[in-house]
Amino acid sequence: MIYDIPTDTNQGSEKIIGGILTAAQFFWLMSGLVVGLAIFSLVFVLTKLKILSILLGLITGSYGVPFAFYKKHEMTLFFYLKTKRKFNKKSKKLINKRSL
């Protein structure tokens, strides 16, 4: 007899960007880069200070790094914060709970 073996679906997302990054990680890093460049250009045009512009651009541009790489309870940071927000919005009053 020949048995069909299902494929392993627990591998997670595929690393498609150079074999290093998933598409979601690439998205978070690119969005951080775009925001950092926008802040850099805005501050540089307004103040003409290179050091301040670079510093603020790096600080705001690095916001995507934790969302791309940090995992908490085997979930990405974005998914963890989204589920935590959903949980906190739920009603904590139980129907059958007695009042004292």
**Helix-strand sequence:** HHHEEH
Main beta sheet, described?
A: 2 strands, antiparallel
Radius of gyration from the alpha-carbon trace, in angstroms: 22 Å
Question: What is the strand arrangement across the widest sheet?
Answer: 1-2
Shape: flat
Assess the beta-strand content as a share of residues.
Answer: under 5%
Task: Give a brief outline of the structure.
The protein has a domain at 23-89.
Descriptive notes:
There is one protein chain. The protein has 100 residues and is mostly helical. It has a domain at 23-89. It has 4 helices and 2 strands; from the N terminus they run αααββα. The protein has helices spanning 23-47, 50-61, 64-69, 77-89; strands at residues 71-72, 75-76. It has a two-stranded antiparallel sheet with strand order 1-2. A hairpin with a 2-residue loop joins β1 and β2 (75-76). The longest helix is centred in the middle third of the chain and has 25 residues, at 23-47. The chain is flat and about 65 Å long.
Topology:
Layout: H1 23-47, H2 50-61, H3 64-69, E1 71-72, E2 75-76, H4 77-89
Antiparallel strand pairs: 1-2
Structure characteristics:
single chain; 100 residues; mainly alpha; two-stranded antiparallel ribbon; 2 strands; flat
